[in-house]
Design a protein that fits this description.
The structure is a homodimer.
Chain A (H helix, E strand, L loop, with lengths): L3 E8 L10 H16 L6 E5 L3 H4 L5 H6 L8 E6 L4 H15 L5 E7 L6 H8 L15 H16 L7 H11 L13 H6 L2 E3 L2 E2 L9 E9 L12 E10 L14 H14 L8 E3 L5 H10 L8 H6 L16 H4 L7 H13 L13 E8 L4 E9 L1
Parallel strand pairs in A: 2-3, 2-4, 9-10
Antiparallel strand pairs in A: 1-7, 1-8, 4-7, 5-6, 8-11, 10-11
């Protein structure tokens, strides 16, 4: 397997983009990445997206997008794994370049959710859960996470306010990210008084949807240009694993086995352990998912993920910096695009381009993208060389 | 890039499967392939499907399907490129194994179209075309192909009846395939008198939709088991290319540039030319697509694809056997699953398991899967060793 490097990144602000189509958004992110890489011609385009078929009445996003940015005739197709679609597009690009089948690839992920009524989007998001066993019971996606959070609080004795710092840290960091949907810090009081969405998940436990696109360009490591003052960003490890689609089927509901397996796979390929990771862009779609992920990926003991937040260890200067650019909570969660925002942000950190939320001496960063209630998890570890 | 072999195939009959869900269909094909390969454990599952989000209210098919067949925790995600989704799943599997990232992968493709009203399915199929430039004009997918066929007849002087043998050959071959949706031969008179769908495309020019699933298992060539009496099936070449999503944007509307480019790419990797190909499972969604594909892939001169049919050169004993197990026309076209049926059929031919429609001395077979009106085309060449 030949080593792979990231040579370009691009993103659009996460927002309600009433004046832009899905094609515009994807194109903007791709053109930004192509300019960043100084590379106008690319062989393959792998598009991450969850719901364009229903939300935008457009499938076949590969051809839809490739020609738009001048890559007519390039290989191009879409990948989908619900909220983890974006990281899957990056993994596909890495495997394609590693295999030798292509010499340059762009992973681009885009989602445009604002065009559909929220009730419709909620129904479409629910297609990430199990239609046979979960949706037929009328449970929504946030309700599944609320069940997990309630159980976690019961099992390990935590209270709702113990989760506050996940949200506070994300918003504090998002305040410094011009691409974030929300750029205002929040206080503990804002968290505690936020309207309830689905008990115990309140508005500050949940990430906002939005429209957005992000892109990364990968090439074989030996073809990565040497640019003074900018490190070469290498893909050190990649891992992916699924779990049962429905929560009730899992022997341990509070353990994200797919997170554990995908992380171990990536650590093993990279020859690293959790203590080597300088920052971790975790999939904090809900505060409970951040806590469970920190545990399954080896950063905290079982039931103790919340402790890292309580002890202020998740800030950019903490032991395990997470959501350093706002995370899903403040940067926003345009579902099928989120995983590439995370990877773009890891690259920004490794290039020391993260401004006020720069993690000191960041050399190794990890990103974790979750689809469904932990039913597909993809991990990437990048390193600055 | 390490060489890759196909070691197992499975499929379900293309039909209206009122008693089976998408999960059942995909599972049946996968379990058949796993039994054929003698391999109960597989590392990765790549799922081809076009419209489950809208037609079946279920996305996230990777996790949905992997656990169902006992592959809990395997890597699994979906790929989509409209009608070419299935071949993309195979290409993804080949690249993943070639890269060394995984050592075994199953490409499975499934589509369940019968559950939705036909008018809804027609609208969903149209999402394979360009929503901005084509769908807004009210043109359906068959109408786009009718425009191509009308123009082709005008430019090259062919008449509608000249296309008859594409349909007659497909149905003659499908009559011997127990997995085909239609297993009755048709006469020239049936073709000529068929009801008009969208002038000049009549019912016998168009392929039927349906429910179905097919699967293939790939491993590194050196791990392919040696089974007496069965050749090792090697992936000799793979190619993929896109074109503009909308027809009006192409400089030459009657030339499938993506077919030419993907075929040349696959020929080049395989070190072969069209004359080396013993059979060609062509994407005959409409008779005009078969003619255009034969030309762009190098089997006929420009405007002369129809001549091969007229001269009876497309039968299993002809110069360029196509649709040897019924093709899209008679085996059926469960859109996102079709490309893997084609590859399963190529493997059947190379194993000499094609019964009454066996191509004599078949050693090298090619499959071509088209998404949209030629806007994504994926080619694979397999060889018996």
């Amino acid at each position: 397997m030949r080593p792979v490097a990231v040579i370009g990144i691009g993103q659009t602000k996460v927002d309600e983009h009433w004046d832009k189509s899905l094609r515009d958004l994807a194109g903007d992110a791709m053109l930004a990445a192509m300019e960043d890489a100084g590379m106008p011609d690319i062989q393959a385009v792998y598009v991450g997206n969850m719901m364009s078929g229903s939300a935008n009445h457009q499938q076949h996003l590969g051809a839809y997008i490739a020609d738009w940015v001048g890559l007519r005739y390039a290989e191009a197709f879409r990948v989908e794994a619900a909220c983890s679609s974006a990281a899957v597009s990056f993994r596909t690009a890495v495997m394609a370049v590693a295999s030798g089948e292509v010499d340059s690839a762009i992973a681009v992920a885009a989602e445009k959710m604002s065009d559909s009524p929220t009730a419709e989007i909620t129904a479409q998001l629910a297609t990430a859960a199990d239609s046979d066993w979960e949706l037929d019971q009328g449970v929504s996606f946030v309700a599944l996470n609320a069940l997990l959070m309630r159980r976690y609080m019961f099992e390990y004795g935590w209270h709702h306010e113990d989760f506050a710092n996940f949200s506070i840290n994300a918003h504090a960091n998002g305040a410094h990210n011009p691409y974030a949907r929300f750029q205002e810090p929040i206080s503990a009081s804002t968290y505690l008084k936020a309207p309830m969405v689905c008990d115990p998940i309140n508005l500050m436990d949940a990430s906002p949807m939005g429209d957005g696109a992000a892109a990364l360009i990968v090439v074989p490591l030996e073809r990565a240009p040497i640019i003074p003052g900018r490190p070469v960003i290498r893909v050190l490890g990649s891992g992916a694993a699924t779990d049962t689609l429905s929560l009730h089927n899992r022997p341990e509901g509070l353990w994200l086995t797919a997170a554990e397996k995908s992380a171990k796979q990536a650590y093993s390929i990279a020859g690293l352990t959790p203590s080597d990771i300088d920052l971790f862009e975790v999939h904090d779609a809900f505060t409970i998912m951040a806590a469970l992920s920190l545990e399954a990926c080896g950063f905290a003991e079982r039931g103790q993920g919340v402790r890292l937040a309580l002890d202020n260890q998740i800030t950019p200067i903490g032991k395990v910096p997470i959501a350093t650019r706002g995370g899903l909570k403040a940067r926003g969660h345009p579902v099928g695009a989120t995983g590439l925002y995370q990877l773009v942000e890891v690259v920004q950190q490794l290039r020391c381009e993260a401004g006020d939320t720069q993690v000191p001496d960041a050399r190794i960063g990890m990103a974790q993208n979750i689809g469904g209630s932990g039913s597909n998890i993809v991990i990437h570890i990048l390193g600055a060389e």
